[in-house]
């Protein structure tokens, strides 16, 4: 049975909407794309060159998810030929601090994590 009471002060509660958002914003390609867009607005092909391992299909899907969540905005540039530019939104910029904190945590604890992985993998063999 699901607890529908409000979380207590300081209690972390991760519901489906939170999981969905985190999955979309912290997925394989989103962090690399957001890192590029934090520096400057980019056109689609600039992003493809900046993140060379991403396929066109994955880049398109990732940008659409980020746009849907209000993290990135898409702007048509009136040039010949017409171009599309992506830029991070003010809401998207607020992700920088939490993402940097997660990356700092990962850097600080990577040796422990690697030891744990090796120990786990050794017991699996």
Characteristic key phrases:
125 residues, mainly alpha, 3-stranded antiparallel sheet, 6 helices, globular
Outline the structure in words.
The protein has 125 residues and is mostly helical. Helices cover 58% and strands 11% of the residues. It has 6 helices and 3 strands; from the N terminus they run H-H-E-H-H-E-E-H-H. A 3-stranded antiparallel β-sheet has the order 1-3-2. The longest helix is centred in the C-terminal third of the chain and has 29 residues, at 96-124. The model has no long low-confidence stretch (mean pLDDT 90).
Rg for CA atoms: 19 Å
Q: How many individual β-strands?
A: 3
The average pLDDT score comes to 90
Largest sheet: 3 strands, antiparallel
Instruction: Tell me the strand order in the biggest sheet.
Output: 1-3-2
Structural class of the helix and strand makeup?
mainly alpha
Q: What string gives the helices and strands in order?
A: HHEHHEEHH
Uncertain stretches of 5 or more adjacent residues: none
Instruction: Give the helix proportion (percent range).
Output: 55-70%
Q: Which overall shape is indicated by the principal axes computed on the Cα atoms? A: globular
Note the total helix count. Answer: 6
Strand content: 5-15%
Head-to-tail CA distance between termini: 39 Å
Short description:
Helices cover 58% and strands 11% of the residues. With 125 residues, the chain is mainly alpha-helical.
Topology, pairings included?
Layout: H1 16-25, H2 30-39, E1 42-43, H3 44-50, H4 56-68, E2 72-77, E3 83-88, H5 90-93, H6 96-124
Antiparallel strand pairs: 1-3, 2-3
């Amino acid at each position: 049975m699901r607890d529908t009471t409000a979380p207590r002060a300081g209690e972390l509660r991760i519901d489906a909407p939170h999981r969905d958002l985190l999955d979309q914003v912290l997925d394989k390609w989103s962090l690399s794309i957001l890192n590029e867009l934090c520096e400057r607005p980019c056109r689609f092909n600039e992003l493809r060159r900046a993140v060379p391992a991403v396929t066109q299909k994955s880049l398109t899907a990732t940008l659409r998810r980020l746009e849907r969540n209000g993290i990135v905005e898409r702007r048509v540039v009136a040039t010949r030929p017409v171009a599309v530019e992506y830029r991070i939104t003010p809401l998207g910029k607020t992700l920088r601090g939490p993402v940097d904190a997660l990356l700092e945590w990962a850097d600080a604890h990577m040796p422990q994590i690697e030891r744990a992985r090796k120990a786990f993998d050794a017991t699996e063999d």
